[in-house]
Amino acid sequence: MPTLLKRMTARETREAHRVSSPLELLVDLVFVVAVAQLAAALAHSVEEGHLLEGILPFVMVFFAIWWAWMNFTWFASAYDTDDVPYRLLTLVQMAGALIIAASAARAFEGEYAGATIGYLVMRVGLVSQWIRAGIQHPEGRTTAFRYAGGITAVQVLWFARLLLPYEVQFPAFFLVAILDMAVPAWAERSGRTSWHPHHIAERYGLFVIILLGESVLAATVAFAQAELTPSLAAVGLSGLVILFALWWIYFLQPVGDGLAARPDRSFWWGYGHYFLFAALASIGAGLEVAVVTIGHAAAEVDHALAAGAAMAAEEGEAVVGSVAAALGIAVPVAIALVMMWALHGPLGIRSLVRAPVALGGAAAIVAAALLAGSIGLAAAIAATAGILVLVVASEYLPRSAPPRSAGSGQIAGSSSVS
Hints:
This protein is mainly alpha-helical. The protein has 14 helices and no strands. α1 (22-47) packs across α7 and α10 (266-307) runs antiparallel to α11 (312-344). The longest helix has 42 residues, at 266-307. The radius of gyration is 23 Å and the shape is globular. It starts with 21 loop residues before the first helix and ends in a 24-residue tail after the last helix.
């Protein structure tokens, strides 16, 4: 039973066996609902032939979801008291995430007011937590109040952006987003918050798993609406292999020790996950589009055969659709693969995908997608799965030992900055 009220103080950074709380797991599920709605809206936009028009709303709304989740996660790592006020303010942030989920589709029509209101609700809950931390934890008071003031000031700019002419709102988004992401760096100049490295690593890992699960759900829903054919069966199996391989690669080595040894690189690691999370979230949309594309092509073939019509025109249209659908999976998979190498490498983790493998694999995956018009969409997706299997297998080949400096007993650069 949670305590009615306890003093909010910084948690111990070396706390043993620190794991995600049940409340944090519930928050993840609520946020992934917003991600699922956003991915579904992206898939619908691509199916209607508006790929480029759909990318920008996806990037913008996903930023709100990701940044709010990340702010909650790092605050909880430092100040989770699990008393009644803490739980209720967390509920406020969950409510904001659901408002964004309900407004995701309208963002693809150019209406961002609903998503902005949902973001405001989440920020109200977070600012209230920072104010409470500032009042009850004197050692971190300046930092906490800086967070509260900075977040509030940027939130005013988010609403001011809605008053700008439509064509100016998009460049204004990126400017305000940069200011929003600058708040932690500015706030922590007066003192670092006491986040737990292994707890943070677990939280990010759990969100990766949830995003992969969302992709499985999106693909399953799409398959349920289509008539099963050998091509669709191949896509289903390939999609499962792709998601399993990405999970395997991300968890090749726990990153908690790396974050503990190199806390100065936590900003790069935490912020860089935006690209990884966004890529994983869009894979589900890509799989859904692939299923629809194959099903549509099969229906056109049946119609043409029944009518006795020539197939040349239909084949030309199917080729274009196949390449676009294949790229809808290949590009986010390639981004995810490269980001896994780029994020874990600076932490000094030895067991991770090497640069030649990650970059070469990403290039091969995109190349296979570009050949979808010749080899078929199902074959291109199967090639993506096969390349990822080779990437995983390459990590189990013997490696040469890294060079060691004379008299050195640790990996270079392993000293931490508090």
